[in-house]
Amino acid sequence: MTSALTLASTAFLAGCQKDEKKIVTKEGEIAKRKFRDLDIPLLGFGCMRLPMKGEEVDMEELEKMVDHLMSHGANYFDTAYMYVNEKSETAIGKVLKKYKREDFILADKSPIYKMNSQEDVRKIFDEQLKKCQVEYFDFYMCHNINANTVDTYRKVKMYDELEKLKKEGKIKYIGFSFHGTPEILKQVVKEHKWDFCQLQINYLDWDIVKAKEQYEIAQAENIPVTVMEPLRGGGLVRLSEKALAKLKEQNPNVKPAEFGLRWAASRKNVITVLSGMSNLQQVKENVETFMHYKEMTPEEEKIADETAKVIQSQGEINCTGCKYCMEVCPKGINIPATFALYNQYKVDNRSFGFKMYYETLDESERPDKCIKCNLCTKNCPQNLKIPELLAKVKDEYDKLKGMKR
């Protein structure tokens, strides 16, 4: 028999979950979304592409950017140990020092690649606190969990150490950033009680590298999402003429950056969208987007899907993403995703991006599994010589796979 207390508790929890989805607006500030005891700005400052003067951070420009963000309620800052050749934490910490600690939200990440023991987790954490000149982090993540790092994060018991730091008041919310397959994500979300996670989500990757599936995995576990790469490293700003024409079919005045940011923010389980802004003009434009924020309409969602299909088919390989090839492939290779990644690489020339996105494909779906049976070629409406093209993509990846950011 269900007690009144149980019913009341259920209603209370349901109400809390509903509040987490609520958009909050305030005069003079950008739109925010409820998360626990915080109002999180929908626009977050991703501190991976800071303004530079030669090899050093342009501190004068950075301060102007931070001041403009803070004056409009955009007070969420996301940094990491490795960003800007390990200079990001120090730079953003120095600029934020002028503000009261309770007035900004700071997110940082534990660099798995530097961890050899559980003791290292705390040692580097303390180093990060000093570099950022703070006594605690609001959001703190196990950084870049993927097929190559997941065992290390487990071996050094990273979550256990972060939980201790949380109990000490040095971390408010524990999460992880992710660059792996849905299969690994399904394991990770169930291993611990996560407060949030950070996923790569944009309208191009929604289908081709299973961003939608990853988002839904987090949503099913009631884990809120912070978004990275909403514009795919600028790739969704620098659109081809054909893709831009498709984007503007409904609204000739639409701006690619605004469209991409709004699309990411309109996912209901997203609490903030990180933008790697590198000058004041970008900051002003993005702030303007969220000062007058409107969620995507069904018509705009359709345009996003159609624009993604155009992007997939552009470049050197004329693949339309119809997936007829996958219907007959005996090895289950994700041929459309492979070609889309390669085409985008040829458009934006982001070598590391191509390598990273390629590695998000499950190993069973990669081009090297091709047995050259040619069933795909016979089923392709574009008459593409698919095995030859898969080999071309694999060769390109092989040239880059030793690359480090």
Topology, please?
Blueprint: H1 4-20, E1 23-24, E2 32-35, E3 38-41, E4 43-46, E5 52-53, E6 56-57, H2 59-71, E7 76-78, H3 83-86, H4 88-96, E8 105-111, H5 118-132, E9 137-145, H6 150-155, H7 158-167, E10 171-178, H8 182-191, E11 196-200, H9 205-208, H10 211-220, E12 225-228, H11 241-247, H12 256-265, E13 270-275, H13 280-291, H14 298-313, H15 324-328, H16 335-348, H17 351-360, H18 375-379, H19 386-400
Parallel strand pairs: 4-7, 4-13, 7-8, 8-9, 9-10, 10-11, 11-12, 12-13
Antiparallel strand pairs: 1-2, 2-3, 5-6
Helix pairs in contact: 2-4, 2-13, 4-5, 5-7, 8-10, 11-14, 12-13, 16-17, 16-19
Low-confidence stretches: 1-20
The largest β sheet comes out as: 8 strands, parallel, barrel
CATH topology annotation of the largest domain:
TIM Barrel
Give the name of the CATH architecture of the largest domain.
Alpha-Beta Barrel
Tally of separate domains: 2
Q: On the 0-100 scale, what is the average pLDDT? A: 90
According to CATH, what is the class of the largest domain? Answer: Alpha Beta
Query: What's the alpha carbon Rg, rounded to whole Å?
Result: 22 Å
**Beta-strand level of the residues, as a percent range?**
5-15%
DSSP helix fraction: 40-55%
Distance between the termini: 58 Å
Number of helices: 19
